[in-house]
C-alpha cells in the first residue's frame, strides 16, 4: 500500500515506517532515563510517543509545561497523545480544548485530538454516542488550534469498515494526519485488525495524510503494519516486559521469563555486551532500565530489517526467515498479504 516516506515536523523528519517507543514520566525508571544513567529510549528512535496523562500531575509537569524538548539532550520529534485511553480507565472527563492547550504548551511536534476509546462490550446507542463525541472533539480541536507548528492528528475509531468510512466523512479537512485507536481489545485478532486498519489507511491516503496506529504493535503487527504502508506505530511492550523481568529473545522475538529459565540467550546488543542476567534482575530502577533498553534494541533491530527488506523488495524472504522461530509473524503477514492484494 502507498505510504508517505517522511513526516516533516518542527524538530526533524520521521522516516517511515517508524516505531515510536511509548514513554511515561511516572515510574522510577524515567528518572534513570532522563538523567541518562542508562541510554534512554528516545536516543534509539527517530521519534517518541508520550502519554499526556503520564505528564499531568507528575513532578516533571512544571519542568516540561513550557516545552517538552528542554528535558532531553536530543532534539527529536515528540508525539503527545490526548490521554483519552487513560482518562477512560480512570473515569475522568476532559475538556478537549484544555487538552489541546496542554499539548501546545508542551510544544509537542505531533498531538492527537482528545478521544473516547470504545471498549468491546458496549450498547450500540452508547457506542455511536462515543464515536460522535470523538468526532466533535477532533473538529473542535482543529478549529481552535493556535500553535500551527504542532501537527494535529484526528483520532479515528470504528469496529467495521462502514463505520470507519462514516467516521472519516464526518471529520473536517485540515488535519495533518490520523491516529487510530480502540484496537487494543482486538490485539490478537489479526484478521479484524488488518481489515479495519486497511480501511483507515486507504481513507487517510485519499486525503494525502499519514496514519498512526495506537497500541497494538507486538512483533507480528510490526511486520503487518509496515507491509501495509502504515507510517507510524507505537509500542511499550519493551517497558511492560521489563516490569515483569521478561527478556525479549533476539531470535524468537518472544518474552523470556528470566527468573524461570535462570539464564538469557546470547545477544549482541550494546546492553547485553556489557551486562549479564544479574544486572537485569535487581529490584531497582537501573536494572529495569537495562532490561527495557535491551528489549527496545530488539524492536529497533527488527524495524531496521523491515525497512531494508521493503526497500529491496525482499520482504517475503524476511518473513519466512522470522517465521521459523515465530509463527505468529507469518500468520499476521498471510492475513495482510491477502487483504492488500485483494485491494
The CATH top-level class label of the domain at 6-243: Alpha Beta
Helical residues, percent: 40-55%
CATH topology of the domain at 6-243: TIM Barrel
DSSP, total strands: 12
- Order of strands across the widest beta sheet? 3-4-5-6-7-8-9-10
Structural class: alpha/beta
Distance between the termini: 9 Å
Characterize the biggest β-sheet.
8 strands, parallel, barrel
CATH architecture of the domain at 6-243: Alpha-Beta Barrel
What series of H and E elements makes up the topology?
Answer: EEEHEHEHHEHEHEHEHEHEEHHHHHH
CATH superfamily of the domain at 6-243: Queuine tRNA-ribosyltransferase-like
Taking all residues together, what is the mean pLDDT?
Answer: 92
Binned strand content: 5-15%
Low-confidence stretches: none
Provide the gyration radius in Å. Answer: 20 Å
SSE order and pairing:
Layout: E1 6-9, E2 12-15, E3 18-23, H1 28-34, E4 48-50, H2 61-64, E5 78-80, H3 84-90, H4 96-105, E6 110-112, H5 124-144, E7 151-156, H6 161-170, E8 177-180, H7 190-206, E9 211-213, H8 219-228, E10 232-235, H9 237-243, E11 246-248, E12 255-257, H10 258-261, H11 270-274, H12 277-281, H13 285-311, H14 315-323, H15 327-342
Parallel strand pairs: 3-4, 3-10, 4-5, 5-6, 6-7, 7-8, 8-9, 9-10
Antiparallel strand pairs: 1-2, 11-12
Helix pairs in contact: 1-13, 6-7, 7-8, 7-15, 8-13, 8-15, 9-13, 14-15
Protein model, in words:
- This protein is an alpha/beta fold and 343 residues long.
- It has a domain at 6-243: Queuine tRNA-ribosyltransferase-like (TIM Barrel).
- The chain is 46% helix and 13% strand.
- It is built from 15 helices and twelve strands.
- The chain has helices at 28-34, 61-64, 84-90, 96-105, 124-144, 161-170, 190-206, 219-228, 237-243, 258-261, 270-274, 277-281, 285-311, 315-323, 327-342, and strands at 6-9, 12-15, 18-23, 48-50, 78-80, 110-112, 151-156, 177-180, 211-213, 232-235, 246-248, 255-257.
- Strands 3-4-5-6-7-8-9-10 form an eight-stranded parallel barrel, surrounded by seven helices.
- Strand 9 (211-213), helix 8 and strand 10 (232-235) form a beta-alpha-beta unit.
- Helix 7 (190-206) packs parallel to helix 8 (219-228) and helix 7 crosses helix 15.
- The model has no long low-confidence stretch (mean pLDDT 92).
